[in-house]
Design a protein that fits this description.
The complex is a heterodimer of chains A (424) and B (462). With 424 residues, chain A is mainly alpha-helical. Chain A has three domains: 2-52; 57-192, no CATH class; 203-420, MetI-like fold (Orthogonal Bundle). Chain A contains 19 helices and three strands. In chain A, helix 11 (203-234) runs parallel beside helix 14 (278-302) and helix 13 crosses helix 14. The longest helix of chain A is centred in the N-terminal third of the chain and has 50 residues, at 2-51. By secondary structure, chain B is mainly α. Chain B has two domains: 3-157, no CATH class; 227-461, Orthogonal Bundle (MetI-like fold). Chain B has 15 helices and two strands. Chain B has helices at residues 3-29, 42-78, 89-104, 114-151, 159-199, 202-207, 231-262, 265-280, 283-304, 314-339, 342-350, 355-384, 387-392, 410-418, 427-461, and strands spanning 211-212, 227-228. A two-stranded antiparallel ribbon of chain B has the order 1-2. The chains are: A mainly alpha (424), B mainly alpha (462).
């Protein structure tokens, strides 16, 4: 009797310790989830913090005197004269007029506040409206990148080192007079890449991504679905089928960069296809996403109950008719969901595209499948490697655009799974 | 015509063939007394005609588009004056890029020798000819085969059976593409790897402790011979993967345990998608985060503690890679833990064990093989991960175990050696393929072992 009580006593005493352990174990789990979620939050906060300024541009609004004598221009319709004329001087003079403390001797320092491309803007405007010559016009120009980052990050030392003390003072004055203003960065969405951060945009990369994704989609979806149908419905139980399945499972886990090596050796060196074009990128990404699409499509086909098949066969449908008329439509939502997820993966993929030359510096927006192009993630990679803070800002902004695409694709996939997938 | 337009045209022709085939089968059936006297429905006669028209034309188109570039290159090189014909592949590819630059207008003709300008003209002419020939060939094949298919429509033919067997073969071809891809990978890396080992000995590659792939570009240039020892790359890869695993395994495993054993349904439905979001973020974003936020943070932190840390430390790359792999580990562990039969859990709880004791002493040992398999899969993913290390780990091939120093990895070297223009013959370029072969073999081995473990374990309880 006493023996038993003491045993109960022991258990009771140990309970406290065991419950403490239990709570500690639970706390570990919560801590692990907290760590993972904190990483997610920090990542997003970091990128938004770095990139929100990329969606803003800084402009100068100036009253430009288009003085023909100063510009060495007496006929604005003459192509040759337009090419030779001086379009920088009117801008510099207009800006000097806005800064009371600046004199003629400061013109170099003043000029460095204006974007190098502003003179091109002015020339194009004059070319379109030759009658503007010898009048005064109020126009808006991009500010220099150094001014841009200084204005957007007022008070941050790291962003103002490129401007002199005097220039900073001027910019502050100009801001008070509303000559220097920040507004939504439409340039970012209308331009291709550029050496000048304030002229650089993502349109070229977005179009390149769309072209590449189009090639990937029209190849990988039909091929993936056909392969899944074969493996689930027609494949005989033999060594060949087993071998195909082993291959698909292994390809799903092969590092993406290996597909880049394949693309380089086969498509570019063996077939002599051009480098850095969306077609080759699409082909490489097709091979990469196929296993994902095949695996999810097979799962979708498997989830169609056998009763459907039996019913169709019972009323005399052939095997192919059963599959194409009954199984495929019912499995379609699941297949589409898997394909969207595969496409989202392909859209964010960078490494294989580096090897097939999609890292070139390309200013023009690509206009075909055989035109040199880059894609959004590669654009991020290129800008992130730049020492200029303004490019880092653009890279973060491009990441935000990329993530918006990806999140909406995944949200679409989740919505489709919830809405369209039928539970049997 | 551009291949893309030609593809569309072929599809249009196939649709036309479908319509004609459909109409002909009906017309043939009319005198017999309606379509019930046909062996198959008119639809199948149309589909048969469309397949006859489309498939040969598409095969011709694909073959032509795949090989025209190489054939044209060979013709252009062959047409050069004998003294300009390049001796080796490296100078051939240089010459070809020069010619195509002249042809595309990127390089003004005044800058190059006269034969090259001629070759560029020839290249343009050949491209034009090839395009026209391709169009003519594809269209005539489509029309001819479509016409034959249309002509051979008879009410007695079982069109449905024929269409179905063609489709079945098509489906098989799509599935067999997986084998073709694997073969493509093996041949593309194996071939170059053999050529690499003709230049560099096995011993140097596998046991050399220094890696500096810069070889002399010109014969008279004073440059290092280049060292191709992969030990520093190998240790660098292992160091970064180990750091990643140190982050990913505890966090991933513990969160999987919490979510499957403790969390209620509501928490699970919120936390799980958030965790999976980590897996959906592109690696270039992680690379950006590692290179521009985590690495400076670590080096500043170390500096304030008085330790020296490189601005591109293995710790930054490995840590961020670990974050990326968390969802991978947690979802695989989650599957395995859920696969442990409820009876084991109930038995342990009935004996008075607490939940954590059940977890640690009963479920975890039962799930261990599966979890190990999952971890191996995660390791293979860490080894093959490219963008994070390219952006955050640096290029210096240091043989070190200090996580605060810069190390480089196999994938970083592949990317560095192969980005930009390269001659296809130097040991430098071939080295990238040899590294790719090693990477492929290593990940393949890990995957095969991991899948075997996971499968074997699953069978025990099913």
């Amino acid at each position: 009797m006493t023996d038993q009580r003491s045993q109960a006593e022991i258990v009771r005493q140990s309970l406290k310790r065991r419950y403490r352990k239990e709570r500690r174990f639970r706390a570990y789990g919560i801590a692990a989830i907290a760590v993972a979620l904190a990483a997610l939050v920090i990542l997003f906060a970091d990128i938004i913090g770095k990139g929100y300024a990329g969606f803003m541009k800084t402009t100068l609004t100036l009253d430009v005197q288009l003085d023909g004598e100063m510009m060495y221009l007496d006929d604005a319709t003459d192509e040759r004269q337009l090419k030779m004329a001086d379009f920088v001087e009117p801008l510099v003079q207009a800006l000097i007029r806005e800064i009371p403390s600046a004199t003629e001797s400061d013109r170099d320092a003043v000029r460095d506040l204006i974007n190098p491309y502003a003179s091109v803007t002015l020339r194009d405007a004059l070319k379109a409206n030759p009658e503007w010559l010898n009048t005064t016009r109020t126009m808006t120009f991009l500010a220099h990148t150094d001014v841009d980052v200084y204005v957007k990050h007022a008070g941050d030392e790291a962003y103002s080192i490129k401007l002199s003390e005097q220039q900073r003072e001027w910019v502050d004055q100009l801001q008070e007079k509303d000559v220097v203003e920040t507004s939504f960065n439409d340039v970012f969405f209308q331009n291709g890449d550029s050496r000048d951060p304030s002229k650089a945009g993502i349109l070229g990369a977005v179009v390149g991504s769309l072209l590449t994704m189009f090639v990937t989609l029209i190849l990988s979806f039909p091929i993936g679905v056909a392969a899944a149908i074969y493996l689930e419905e027609f494949a005989p139980q033999n060594k060949l089928t087993d071998f195909i399945e082993v291959n698909i499972n292994n390809l799903a886990a092969v590092p993406s960069i290996i597909f880049g090596l394949l693309g380089l050796a086969v498509f570019i060196n063996l077939f002599g296809m051009p480098r850095s074009v969306p077609v080759v990128g699409g082909l490489v990404l097709t091979l990469m996403t196929l296993p994902t699409i095949i695996i999810s499509s097979r799962a979708a086909i498997k989830s169609v109950p056998p009763s459907i098949r039996e019913a169709a066969e019972g009323i005399g449908a052939s095997k192919m008719q059963v599959v194409l008329h009954h199984v495929l439509p019912l499995a379609m939502p699941g297949m589409l969901t898997g394909s969207i997820i595969g496409m989202a993966q392909a859209l964010g993929e960078t490494a294989p595209l580096l090897l097939i030359g999609m890292v070139a510096f390309i200013v023009d927006v690509p206009d075909g499948f055989f035109d040199s192009a880059t894609v959004l993630p590669v654009q991020v990679f290129l800008w992130a490697g730049s020492p200029e803070l303004a490019f880092i800002e653009r890279a973060s902004a491009a990441i935000m655009v990329l993530l918006t695409f990806l999140i909406s694709m995944n949200a679409l996939a989740i919505w489709m799974r919830k809405r369209l997938e039928r539970r049997w | 015509m551009q291949p893309a337009n030609l593809l569309l045209l072929t599809l249009v022709l196939a649709v036309v063939a479908y319509g004609l085939g459909y109409a002909r089968s009906r017309a043939l059936a009319m005198p017999l007394g309606g379509i019930r006297h046909l062996k198959s429905l008119p639809f199948y006669y149309g589909a048969r005609a469309a397949l006859w028209c489309g498939i040969p034309a598409l095969i011709v188109l694909a073959l032509w588009a795949a090989f025209q570039g190489k054939v044209i290159q060979m013709l252009v090189i062959g047409s050069l004056p004998p003294e300009m014909i390049p001796a080796d592949e490296g100078s051939a590819s240089l010459l070809l890029s020069k010619i195509s630059n002249v042809a595309s207008g990127a390089l003004p003709p005044g800058f190059v020798e006269a034969p090259i300008v001629e070759a560029a003209e020839r290249l343009k002419a050949l491209r034009e000819q090839s395009r026209m020939l391709m169009t003519a060939l594809v269209v005539s094949v489509a029309v001819l085969a479509g016409f034959l298919g249309w002509l051979r429509i008879r009410p007695r033919i079982n069109a449905r059976e024929q269409v179905e067997s063609i489709l079945k073969w098509l489906f098989f071809a799509c599935a067999a593409l997986a084998i073709l891809t694997t073969l493509g990978i093996i041949f593309s890396v194996a071939f170059e790897t053999f050529r690499f080992f003709e230049k560099i000995s096995f011993v140097e590659f596998f046991f050399g402790t220094s890696w500096s792939p810069q070889t002399a570009l010109r014969a008279d240039q004073v440059a290092a011979e280049g060292a191709f020892g992969m030990i520093p790359l190998f240790t660098g890869t292992l160091l970064i993967s180990a750091i990643a695993m140190l982050v990913a395994v505890p966090v991933g495993l513990l969160s999987a345990i919490y979510l499957s054993e403790y969390a209620n349904k509501r928490v699970r439905s919120i936390v799980k998608p958030l965790l999976e979001m980590l897996a959906g973020i592109p690696t270039v974003v992680y690379g950006f985060f590692a290179a521009l936020t985590v690495a400076p943070f670590i080096s500043n932190l170390a500096a304030s503690l008085g330790i020296e840390a490189s601005s591109q430390s293995a710790l930054a790359a490995g840590g961020v890679m670990g974050i990326m792999i968390i969802p991978f580990v947690s979802s695989l562990s989650d599957d395995v833990i859920n696969a442990v039969p409820q009876s084991l859990r109930d038995g342990s709880l009935a004996l008075g064990a607490t939940q954590s004791e059940t977890m640690k002493k009963v479920i975890f040992p039962a799930a261990l093989p599966g979890i190990m398999g999952g971890i191996l899969l995660a390791v293979s993913r860490a080894i093959g991960e490219t963008m994070i290390v390219v952006m955050a780990a640096g290029l210096a091939a240091n043989l070190t175990a200090n996580p605060l120093e810069t190390v480089t990895t196999v994938t970083v070297q592949i990317v560095t050696l192969l980005t930009g223009d390269q001659e296809f013959d130097s040991a430098k370029t071939l080295a990238a393929f040899a590294l790719g072969a090693m990477l492929f073999l290593a990940t393949l081995l890990l995957n095969v072992i991991a899948l075997k473990i996971v499968r074997k374990y699953r069978e025990q309880y099913d």
